[in-house]
Design goal:
Layout (H helix, E strand, L loop, with lengths): L5 E3 L2 H13 L4 E6 L5 H13 L2 E6 L19 H10 L4 E3 L3 H4 L19 H4 L3 H16 L3 E5 L3 H13 L5 E5 L19 H6 L2 H14 L4 H14 L3 E9 L14 E9 L2 E8 L1
Parallel strand pairs: 1-4, 2-3, 2-5, 3-4, 5-6
Antiparallel strand pairs: 7-8, 8-9
Length: about 280
Amino acid sequence: MSKILAQVDTVKALRQRVARWRREKLKVALVPTMGALHEGHLTLVDHANTLADRIVVSIFINPAQFAAGEDLTTYPRDLEGDLKKLSARKANLAFVPMGEEMYPKGFATSVSVKGPATAALEDKHRPHFFTGVATVVAKLLIQARADYAVFGEKDYQQLKTVTRLAADLDIATRIVGAETIRHDDGLAMSSRNEYLSEYERVVAPLLYKTLQETAEELRSGAEPAACMRRAFRALNKASFKVDYVEARNADSLRKLIGTTDEPIRLLAAAYLGKTRLIDNIAV
């Protein structure tokens, strides 16, 4: 059953609402998003509802994580639709700040992250990215003062980076990862999927299929480097322009050396036409 969703656009109003819930002894969860909400985002809201009594969803397209030439100006936007979806999924509050609220005049601070953020994956191809992410996420965690913050596993390196950030900065919010939500053909849900042409949408699930096949090879004891080469060739043959396909330690994201019994995460990023897709699976 849908309900009326409250909306605020200032940090002061957000904190007032959360403080009131705190006085009522209610648990609060935050779901950070950039809007253009799809079922993957909404499943994060559902997961947050299993953890807390009140749910805050932030909608903010963070300019600090886009480099020159990336899709900041064309990134999908549908605030009216987003708010309807959030109301139907039992979110309590949408925090929708303007740019000047998050980065006021004179703003001069950024959060520099290492550890999982310097694993030569996303950071190798988008060196600006994690400073922008870490800065805005640190602000959101401090602003919302939530008990939990829920992030999707599709952005696996981001999830590990944010978890490290919260621990290192003694932010009390518990970071929670939620599994990747996929279309019936296996393609991970993403706001950027709408950029895909009809033909590209048919090809796109091959990214997930290749990861599945590679994971099976790794489980059978195949040498990781050879598996990565085969996966790279398979994706290139299927019209992807591969940024990376890597098997890494699932916790630290460090590179593997030979066959190993350690937990493994298989991660990939590739362009299909003009659309950059990312995905990952456990091995």
